[in-house]
Specification:
Arc Repressor Mutant, subunit A
Length: 178
Amino acid sequence: MATKQEIADVFEKHVSRFGYAKTSLDEIARSMHISKKTIYVHFEGKRELYGYIVERQADQQKRQLKESVSALTGTRARLEALVKLVISQARAHIDATTKDEWMQEFEIAADAFRKANGDLIRELVADGMSAGEFPSGDADLVEKMVAAMIVEYAVTVNADPDYDRDEELVERIMRFVG
């Protein structure tokens, strides 16, 4: 029997090649020479399977982002670098997908984004508050507001890929954080 990981790997390759909308569970089952029921043993459906691979990618991205900003001195510098990297990655993903495809993936991907990047943002904000670099307050609330700003900006960029106010967004986020 195919494992959850094997099914996710094949699904991820199909999505990368054909896009989310054009990838079906029937196609995955056929290509793996398994029944569709085998997929349903591990996943409730296409949406859950896609969510699984996005979470897996988000966890990997979280580790990479944490490593890339860890060498910087000061929480403010690390948070600013993290926000820039997240915006850059969001823009790259938008450039790699069609507008419609991105919107179909948006709800699932946004949740994974908030989970992975939210943890890092919240950690940095809390550290900055403890160190006196940021005003004290509720780090969870700050993280949610920063994530909302980035997600809404990504929606704007998806609607108009030429819209480029990345630096302004980073500046405004940093002012908001303190």
